[in-house]
Amino acid sequence: MTYEGDYSRLSGYQGAQQLLAQGVTALFVSNYNMSVGALEYLNVAVVRIGQDLFYSHYDYADQIDEVTSSILAIQPPTKEIGVKCAEILLARLNDSTLPAGQTIVMENEIHGI
Length: 113
What we know:
Blueprint: H1 9-21, E1 26-29, H2 32-44, E2 54-58, H3 61-65, E3 71-75, H4 78-94, E4 109-111
Parallel strand pairs: 1-2, 2-3
Antiparallel strand pairs: 3-4
């Protein structure tokens, strides 16, 4: 089951509400604002993370850790992503014949349980 939000806090709240109504036992939220909204809903619905539901999200691991320690957070290498993007952009500006559409894989850090 999936819910496609708009990266807002409200859509995180609504997504968690809809998915839990469908009986999900695990949530992965891909954006910080949506994660805050989902956590707000879980609080209102008295859902215990780590007991009633497995919860994970992407990015801002350090800020969510302050809220609860029962969350698995995936932290991207933000600085390295920016550096790599700048390198590719500069290379393409200097040589327009370079191919577009490269796939670059970078390792993320995993925080939590």
